[in-house]
Design a protein that fits this description.
Helix content is 63%, strand content 15%. It has 209 residues and is an alpha+beta fold.
């Protein structure tokens, strides 16, 4: 018993020594700083891990929604670019012959003029029959090639004037046609697919004076 009592007294004495040393170390520390450590420990204990996890999940969800929208926009823009490229390629194929076709129209005009200039009596002449037949065959072949490449003649005579495909160069008094009707074609017009190569030069009817 005597030994146990001495041990307890020594422990109490050691605690007092430690307390005195701690007091000496804190002697120069302001009071509010002494309490800061205890306050911080208390604050950490008040944090709610569930709330913090919920906020993190909500932020990740927002970032995911934003990324999904950006992917959708990028995909839509890619599709638009692809469609534009496909249309450009299709147009290039469809209208590749536009310049050449426009230049060759003068050849078609000359063939028409050549045939129109041959008098009827010469058409029946044995000496000219072969020549006329050759010019007519050339004209038919040219029209076939035009059709193969989507070049078609503009309809004009007997139709109302259409400023999109007709160019009126004169008015002709007429009792037989309504005013504004095409009654004469001076030069044929042509389309390539749905684009105008050249308007038809026409004369339109008007009421007689």
């Amino acid at each position: 018993m005597h030994d146990e009592k001495e041990t307890q007294e020594e422990a109490v004495q050691n605690d007092k020594v430690l307390d005195e040393e701690a007091e000496r170390e804190l002697a120069g520390v302001p009071e509010h700083l002494r309490d800061q450590s205890d306050d911080d420990d208390g604050d950490d204990g008040d944090a709610d891990p569930t709330a913090e996890l919920g906020e993190a999940i909500a932020k990740l969800k927002g970032d995911l929604d934003t990324a999904r929208q950006e992917v959708l926009y990028a995909r839509a823009e890619t599709q638009n670019v692809r469609r534009r490229l496909e249309k450009d390629v299709a147009d290039a194929r469809s209208y590749a012959a536009t310049g050449f076709a426009r230049d060759i129209l003068s050849v078609a005009d000359n063939l028409v003029r050549a045939l129109d200039s041959i008098p009827e009596e010469l058409r029946e002449d044995e000496k000219f029959k072969g020549l006329v037949a050759g010019i007519e065959a050339t004209q038919r072949e040219l029209e076939r090639v035009f059709s193969q490449h989507g070049v078609t003649r503009v309809a004009a005579k007997g139709l109302p004037l259409d400023p999109n495909v007709h160019e009126a160069v004169m008015e002709i008094p007429s009792d037989d046609a309504d005013p504004g009707t095409v009654i004469q074609e001076m030069q044929a017009g042509y389309l390539i697919k749905d684009r105008l190569l050249r308007p038809a030069m026409v004369g339109v009817a008007k009421k007689p004076d």
